[in-house]
Amino acid sequence: MKSKFRSLRIKELNVDKGFLFLGLWFLILRLLPIWMDKFPFNYDNAKDSLAIMQMWTFRKPALLGAVTSMEGLYNGPLWYYIFFPLNLILNFHPIASVLTVNLVGIITLWLVWRYIGKFEAFMMTVSLSVITIMQTAWYPYLTFFPVTWVYIIFTKLNKKKPSTLLLMLLAISVSTMFHAQIAIGVLFVVLVPVILLLNMIVPSKKQAVLMIVGFLLGFMPQLIFEFRHDFLQTRSVYRFIRNFGSEAAEIGQNVKGLGRVLEVLKYYSNNFIGSITPYPLSANKILPAIFILVFVYITIKRFDTFRKEKSVKVIIQIILGSMILHLILPVKFYYLIAYTPLWIFLFSKLIKTYPKAVKTFVVFIFVGISIFHLRTMLINYNNLSKESRILFEPKLKAVREVYGLSVGEAFSSYHYVPELYDYTYQFIYQYLSASEGKRFPVDYAYAPNVPPYMITKKLKGDNVQPSFTMLIVEEDERWELYDRWFNDVTQGKKVVQTCKVNGQIDLYKLVDENLN
Prior knowledge:
By secondary structure, the chain is of the alpha/beta class. The chain has helices spanning 2-12, 17-31, 43-57, 78-89, 95-115, 118-126, 128-133, 144-156, 164-177, 182-198, 205-217, 220-228, 232-242, 244-251, 257-276, 286-306, 310-326, 340-351, 356-387, 392-406, 423-436, 479-489; strands at 411-416, 443-445, 468-474, 493-502, 505-512.
């Protein structure tokens, strides 16, 4: 009886055994290598974790997300709210945000499986780029999801009688992009109406109004912020438009003329290779070029076979349109993560024009390569935990070592990180205090008298004299900057103990020089 009930529920959800197996492999490829705190965690990851924790600690909902490259302009806070439930359940351990990304990924994978195709879902599972972006919770990478949703909606829109619900979902998906990467949101605000017109999909007046409402709903937090802060972001956008040349140069030092065209093509080709391959080819300069040439050749040979498909037209329209816009607007490599699903779907459509045996061969080969890649990732992440500063595990270990060396005494903690903003260690102290009741340091920041991330409501230890000072030092090639920092924080103190956390993180215990 139980087995029948379970089968019924799976059937009702349109989830078959093939998807369950694929979904399990999807999660294994992404989560197994980074389990036990081996996921990337620095600058933006820690800053966002702090913001999510702050919402709960001070019962203050966020109105803005992460800051953008444009001064005074912020992404929306939607992802904070999506990440929040699992963070709360897991006591704000930052793996919660990574798990949330994978949960959204599984839902998106199911949508692709059901509405696009099983082979496309398989390619998304083994794609090198998709695996990489889901092993962290970095804001710009999250554009991958709304672009996938936009593509699915376009493939389902009826030209003669477009669904009002789908049109609203299309507008909401574009609005969502402004919560992850405004640069991509701006592009799709232009691209979506153009593609609707190119495909002769004309919403009625009522539908157009509902689309605008759906789009604007996503901006409610930012609008509240604007009214409270004298339209700060609006003025930032106006300044950017008015001084476009100089402001764009601040975001990215892109070249001009033919050099600009080649630069954009290089960005797109790198994104294309990472999207449709299950193993990195970047180590070899010849292989990527051969791969692209072969793809272009078979695309030309098979173009007449698959170009008439509506879904292919949509992909080409989005990619070509975005390339043209990026010739004018700023572009960075991580902006293009948004187009990863489109490359996957285009490659899949091309393979499916060949006999079934070709698709079977690709699946067989890519499964083998993904298994090999999984083994490689396990080794790489294990090595990174021992030799690198970029993972959460060694940073957490460093702070635990500090507590071990404190033996219950009050202390101050200062942290040298190459990005200067020590969000990672500020977060870890707050996380350990919230989850394990650890005592806050008397002071913890980049250096003495430097304000922490939570400026107005700083969480810190008792107002007592620290018995000693701990330095957490991450390796940096800019020795002159490090030497200046080290001299400043050790002035009037002497090193009494050192400890090596891993190949790139060291600890120093300091006491006052006049202490007997």
